[in-house]
What we know:
With 395 residues, the chain is α/β, with parallel strands linked by helices. Helix content is 29%, strand content 23%. It is built from 12 helices and 20 strands. The chain has helices at 16-30, 41-45, 49-58, 70-75, 97-107, 116-128, 153-161, 184-203, 217-222, 355-362, 366-372, 382-386, and strands at residues 11-14, 35-39, 64-67, 83-88, 110-113, 133-140, 148-149, 166-172, 211-213, 230-231, 255-260, 263-267, 272-273, 279-280, 285-290, 307-310, 313-318, 326-329, 341-345, 378-381. The strands form 3 sheets. A 9-stranded mixed sheet has the order 12-15-18-17-16-19-11-1-20. Strands 2, 3, 4, 5, 6, 7, 8, 9 and 10 form a 9-stranded parallel sheet that branches. It has a two-stranded antiparallel ribbon with strand order 13-14. Strand 16 and strand 17 form a beta hairpin. The longest helix is centred in the middle third of the chain and has 20 residues, at 184-203. The radius of gyration is 24 Å and the shape is elongated. Pyridoxal-5'-phosphate binds at residues 39, 41, 86, 174, 216-218, 232-236, 242. Residues 39, 41, 86, 174, 216-218, 232-236, 242 line the site of pyridoxal-5'-phosphate.
Amino acid sequence: MDAHTCLGEPRLLISHEALRHNAGVLRAAVGDSVRICAILKADAYGHGAAAVARTLARGRLADALAVANLDEASALPEVGLPVIVFRPVENVYVGRQRNQLEEAIERGWTLTICSAAAAGDVARLALARGKRATVQVKIDTGMSRSGVDDIEAKEVIEAVSQQPSLRLGGLCTHFACADELDDVATAEQFRRFCEVTDGWVDANRTGRRPIRHAANTAGMLLHPDMHLDMVRPGLGLYGIDPMGPATGRQLKPVMKWVAPLLMVRTVRKGTSVGYGLTWTAPRDTRLGLVPVGYADGYMRSYSNRAKVIVNGVAAAVVGRVSMDLITVELGSVPSAQQGDEVTLLKDDPASPASAYALAELGGTIPYEIFCRIGSRVHRVAVDEVAAEAPERAVG
Ligand SMILES: *Cc1c(COP(=O)(O)O)cnc(C)c1O
């Protein structure tokens, strides 16, 4: 998206500079010998996976990319990095998944396997195409979500290693409580993972160790002893600390969400606003209209609670958030006028409009705040925006 074509529209400004910075912070946390697999699922947590992939590849800031499913893998640009698909392969012969798997095998993506049957299915598909498919075995060590349980894991790993058309690209698990300090569950998961995989590495006929990985952002930051061969940061890359804003880590939020003040009007004391007339002006004041609503991911639960930033000053969202519009009270911002930029989500962890603050208000986590931001909001690289001459709507 060209930054100019959507000037004056709701936009997500993506700072590739901040992305590079965060990748550097994460690299420093693991050192040079541990690989970094950047998590780009859900359109890079709403940041735009294609642009994020290019920036990471260009700066050699990641060693691999991971996405949730095959559609997301297909949508990635070819940037010369290995691609891992997290969703476990099952139901190979059902519908379009088979065509997608053939594409995955052609393009060398790493597929996730949690059963011997799935290993056999992928092996047959690869064989039929004269290819070798790369797979990783996901082991459930206590989260009880996806993965083969640690008792059957050896069988599945064996099944993979016996198929000439499969290459064992990795062994992995996922922590349930990595963001909790001093947490016994994570230590136990790690112990179980090592118990299964250490043994197998010794018995490995090829003599090559498959890479092992377990840690997401919280896991890699809080548990330096659990980095193994690779870490899998998502949230941290986008500049958010899974343990909250107060930890003092030098992560910079990558995303800033802005929209124009569509209209400014003066209303009298006693005027009520929005569906249900849930807010009434306590004095004569000015109201601003912003073309963003819950359809864009600006949650209805922010009604009468959230703050936006206008000309550097916090302004309250008043009345209900509707599908496509919100109203803000501009009593605190006398300078505000039509066309000014309103910041709905600020790239400053301490702002009342930070991802942390909005998550708190919405009863959720920053991950969900990002993923909800809809496709009507144009994603643009802030570096492009910075290059523009400042413009102001004539009003
Ligand atoms: C989403 C995901 C991650 C990244 O988690 P963050 O908390 O965002 O760092 C890592 N591994 C797996 C398997 C995931 O699904």
